[in-house]
């Protein structure tokens, strides 16, 4: 089985807008690795939907999120049952877009 480096999903044309969804967010990894990928490095708007429980847990940790609310916005999502756990990304540029769906 060949494993895929997650960051390679962002080796596409530069996006103007990126909408990402995740269960939890490692802000340090996001800011240090993903921001430097071709798809996100020039994005004017980056929006991340994540599980509200994980968001509140992250707020109580000593998290280095220097670019939060400056280069990207996090939207906590609390479903009526269970947890918010999709893995869906959308990157939109002048030339079109990319949709990624994972597990």
The arrangement of helices and strands along the chain is EHEHEEE
Taken from the alpha-carbon principal axes, the silhouette is: globular
Could you give the order of strands across the largest sheet? 3-2-1-4-5
- For the record, give the distance between the C-alpha atoms at the N and C termini, rounded to a whole number: 15 Å
Count of individual helical segments: 2
The gyration radius over C-alpha positions equals: 14 Å
Low-confidence stretches: none
Strands, total number: 5
Quickly give the structural class: alpha/beta
Q: How large a portion of the residues is in β-strands, by DSSP E?
A: 25-35%
Helix content: 10-25%
- Global mean pLDDT: 90
Largest sheet: 5 strands, mixed
Oligomer: single chain
Question: How does this structure look, described?
Answer:
The protein has 103 residues and is an alpha/beta fold. The chain is 14% helix and 29% strand. The chain contains two helices and five strands; from the N terminus they run E-H-E-H-E-E-E. It has helices at residues 27-32, 52-59; strands at 17-22, 45-51, 73-77, 88-93, 96-101. It has a five-stranded mixed sheet. Strand 2 (45-51), helix 2 and strand 3 (73-77) form a beta-alpha-beta unit. 18% of the residues are buried. The mean pLDDT is 90.
Keywords:
103 residues, five-stranded mixed beta sheet, 2 helices
